[in-house]
Each structure stands twice: as structure tokens, then as C-alpha cells.
Amino acid sequence: MKTKAIVLVAILVGVLALAVIGYTYLSKNYQAQEDIKAEAVRETEKEPQKAVDFTVTDKAGNKVNLSDNFGKPIVVNFWATWCGPCKSEMPEFNKIYKEYGDEIIFMMVNLTDGYRDTTEKVNQFILENGYEFPVYFDTEYSAASAYSINSIPATLFINKNGEITDGHLGAMSESVLRGYIKPLLSGAGQ
User: Which sequence positions are flagged as catalytic?
Assistant: First the structure.
């Protein structure tokens, strides 16, 4: 009986020792993982980047620079009439523009190549669909080049200080677009 008790105590002490060693090891490993996660968060919280300026033309043929609009938040959307996903998000942009067009500058930049999209064709498309947001024509692809746009739709969100706070590649639903608009209106990242 005394031998059984000694063996049980020895086993219990061994289990406790393993538990302490395991806890110490796992705690250090957990802390290392948390340090890695914290570093990743710091990497994503970099300072906003200054928006690169570009020049496009408006409906009347006047040249307009992106920087002309600094001082207010800006949404820049790159699109084309031949792009199905671009066309699918246009109603959402129009709705949000009608709500916030006084508070946020919307620059709907058409990639006007002169073949698939011409200024006349784009103007007709806007008229037929009843869109009210302002459309700009990137006939020289200076805007697309400034941001290396090679896939559309692509949208940039720029704060009132002219800094890019976010971007989105692909079509957006109304709720996703509102999710990007909210920080611009609240002044986040400015």
C-alpha cells in the first residue's frame, strides 16, 4: 500500500512537472505568435499615401486635375461601358452620389480608348441610364497610368488631405461602398 502511494505521488508530481513545463513552453510560443500578429497590424496601419495627381477631361472637354478637388474627400472609380462588373455597380454609385455628392467629390473616370468607349458613347450610356454623377474621360490614360490600373472596376478613396486611405478592386455592392464612404465622412485617417 505504501509503495502504491509513493508511485501515485511520483506520478502526480511528474504530471504537475510536465504541466508546468508545458504551460511555460506554450506561453512563450503564444507570446511569440502575438508579437507576430502585432507586427502585422503595425504594417497595415501605415500612414496614408499622398494621391498621385492626374488630368482627365470633363463632359464639356475641360481639363480637370485630381488635385483640384483636394480639400474634400474624393472617390475615384475607374470604369468602362464594356465592363460588366463596372456597369453592375453604377446604380449603387449613383445612389450614394445623390446622398453624399455635396460632401464627397465623385470622379467616375471612364477609360476612354476611342474604340470601345468614346466620349459620345459614354455620354449616351450615362443619359440612357439616368446617372447623375460626374463622368470624366481618361482619353490619354494618364489617370490609369498614374495608378497602374490594369483591371476594372477599381476604386480609390482619398481623404480631404489628398491621401489615399483605401482602395477596392472589383464591383461593389451598396453596403460595401457605404463601408468605404463612412470613414471618409467621419474624417478617419485624416
Answer: 83, 86
